[in-house]
Design a protein that fits this description.
- The protein is built from 18 helices and 27 strands.
- It is α/β, with parallel strands linked by helices.
- It has 3 domains: 216 residues, Rossmann fold (3-Layer(aba) Sandwich), CATH 3.40.50; 155 residues, Rossmann fold; 99 residues, GMP Synthetase, Chain A, domain 3.
- The longest helix is centred in the first third of the chain and has 18 residues.
- Keywords: ATP-binding, Ligase, Membrane, Nucleotide-binding, Transmembrane, Transmembrane helix.
- GO terms for molecular function: ATP binding; CoA-ligase activity.
Length: 570
């Protein structure tokens, strides 16, 4: 019996020995644990075969050979180039063979990928994983210094780079191949390796265990230094099986998806790079997000399903009616990677009543998953929730001062346990032990609560709470109020040190074009809707709010800017 089977068997025995938990919330008052009430059927059971790797799992879900040639996996939104599942399978086999036999990439070698979204991205990822190598991905807009740090930290043995990003890798000295052929150079490319391989390649037979490391993904570092999140093949297989389940319960098997979420990020990698290939859908690929290009792609390709982030949903609310576009094909928009405010969600539903809007929640450390709305009815009824625990997940809400588990409706730090939880942080035992306790519970760092019906609510990052006169103020709540103002396009709230009260909330605001909205008007607008201790005390107007590729506000950048402004005034 494998380790995972033993774990599953022990968990079943443990659950049978416990008193029954709440039939609506999943809460066990004796243990303080919330259980997902959604059970996976036999069809979606997570594979426990110890020698199954991520690539083999994904390829096993591809359409049968006689259907694979006609079924389109990807369409490049810019060039209209399409790739069938049959072509994709052959490309993965060819590249894997070339990496293993030609470039001698071996099990455990780390391969660094620096590229925007492309029809080759999944091929690269799956070829790397199939030979037992470890995938690490980076944001193409990162600086050469940031890239050098990740190459060094991950101990990358080989890099695969888009031609336009190559100059950032040269100083690292890591051997590099390009994604596509560059006419003015002699460097090897992925395209050439695929074309140059034999006509009937086979995947190299490399023994890979589910417990082996599959990927090292770097957290965005919105509040501190980014860390390498180590994910195993078991983690990725588990989250893909859950994505398959969610596609089934949502009826998304025949949808056309649009991908502008970057594939280097856990959200994009799990959805577009790996997971949706298991569902067999067609994905329209955008190299990067552009609002008008997104609208054009939805109209041209009759996109049904749009996995998105809050800034994109906000842009649809603020600008879609002014743009000439047809969004009638859209039937579902998902939101993840950052909190979506209740006000924006309600306005989106008012403007686009035929589109389902479902928010979810997850972390890189949980392979991108944790909560999900299985029905639009529930999503409408709970617009400020991010759904219920998905199958295989348990949760605790832990008092941040006393460390004790809390019952429904009490706010505390969310802790999770699931087969998707990371192995740890690369080379950082201290950070790993701070994040995962001895029983395997992941401390998320997010303040939240779970209600009597099992719906999960995220309040704020604990580190980002503003401490004002002994009270805790959540920036996300104030941002939600600010975004409801018709003349405010975007907003972010940060703490500013204050000698008398500890900290005060300061807002950075992006005004609508032509608006002369004043600082006092913004302060009064917020003051009329929140408790006195939550009031915004300072306002600074800014052209754009700095955000990560996944749409998270980079508060540390704004904190640095506020300190610089203060020093300048002094």
């Amino acid at each position: 019996m494998s380790g995972e089977e033993i774990l599953s068997s022990n968990e079943e025995k443990y659950n049978r020995s416990q008193p029954p938990f709440g039939s609506r919330s999943g809460y066990n008052s004796r243990t303080g644990i919330y259980h997902s009430l959604i059970k996976l059927g036999i069809k979606h059971e997570i594979p426990t075969r110890p020698d199954l790797n991520t690539a083999n799992f994904v390829l096993s879900q591809f359409p049968q050979a006689h259907l694979a040639e006609a079924r389109i996996a990807f369409i490049d939104a810019r060039t209209n180039l399409s790739v069938s599942y049959g072509e994709l399978r052959r490309s993965i086999y060819s590249l894997a063979s070339a990496l293993f036999h030609g470039l001698e990439v071996r099990k455990g070698d780390v391969v660094f990928v620096l590229s925007p979204n492309s029809t080759l991205y999944s091929t690269i990822c799956l070829a790397v994983l199939s030979v037992g190598a470890v995938l690490t991905t980076a944001n193409p807009i990162n600086t050469a210094t940031e890239i050098a740090k990740q190459v060094h930290d991950s101990s990358a043995k080989l890099a695969i780079s888009a031609p336009e990003e190559l100059h950032k890798l040269v100083p690292t000295g890591v051997p590099t191949i390009l994604t596509s052929h560059c006419s003015d150079g002699n460097m090897l490319s992925v395209e050439e390796l695929i074309k140059g391989c034999c006509t009937s390649p086979e995947l190299p037979q490399v023994p890979v265990a589910q417990s082996d490391t599959a990927a090292i993904l770097y957290s965005s570092g919105t509040t501190g230094v980014s860390k390498g999140v180590v994910l195993t093949h078991a983690n990725l297989i588990s989250i893909m099986r859950l994505l398959l389940w969610s596609a089934d319960v949502s009826g998304s098997q025949d949808d056309v998806f649009l991908a502008f979420i970057p594939m280097f990020h856990i959200y994009g990698l799990v959805f577009f790079g790996l997971g949706l290939l298991c569902v067999g859908v067609t994905t329209i690929l955008m190299q990067k997000y552009d609002f008008q290009a997104m609208l054009d792609a939805i109209q041209k390709h009759k996109v049904n399903n749009l996995p998105a982030v809050p800034p994109v949903i906000l842009a649809l609310v603020k600008h879609a009616r002014k743009a000439t576009c047809d969004l009638s094909s859209l039937r579902r928009v998902g939101s993840g990677a950052a909190p979506l405010s209740k006000e924006v969600a309600l306005e989106f539903r008012r403007m686009f009543p035929w589109i389902e809007l479902r928010q979810g929640y997850g972390l890189t450390e949980s392979s991108g998953g944790a909560t999900f709305f299985a029905s639009d009815k529930d999503a409408k009824a709970h617009p400020d929730s991010c759904g219920k625990l998905i199958p295989t997940f348990c949760a605790k809400v832990v008092d941040i001062e006393k460390g004790k588990p809390l019952p429904p409706h009490k706010e505390g730090e969310l802790w999770f346990k699931s087969p998707t939880i990371m192995k740890g942080y690369l080379g950082n035992l201290e950070a790993t032990s701070a994040a995962i306790d001895s029983e395997g519970w992941l401390r998320t760092g997010d303040l939240g609560y779970i209600d009597e019906n099992g719906f999960v609510y995220i309040v704020e990052r604990i580190k980002e709470l503003i401490k004002h006169n002994g009270y805790q103020v959540a920036p996300a709540e104030l941002e939600s109020v600010l975004l409801s103002h018709p003349l405010i396009v975007d907003a972010a709230v940060i703490p500013v040190e204050d000698e008398e009260t500890g900290q005060i909330p300061m807002a950075y605001v992006v005004r609508a074009a032509g608006s002369e909205l004043s600082e006092n008007q913004v302060i009064q607008f917020v003051a009329g809707q929140v408790a006195p201790y939550k009031k915004v005390r300072k306002v600074s107007f800014i052209d754009t709010i700095p955000k990560s590729a996944a749409g998270k506000i980079l508060r540390k950048d704004l904190v640095s800017q506020s300190k610089y402004q203060l020093v300048s005034k002094l």
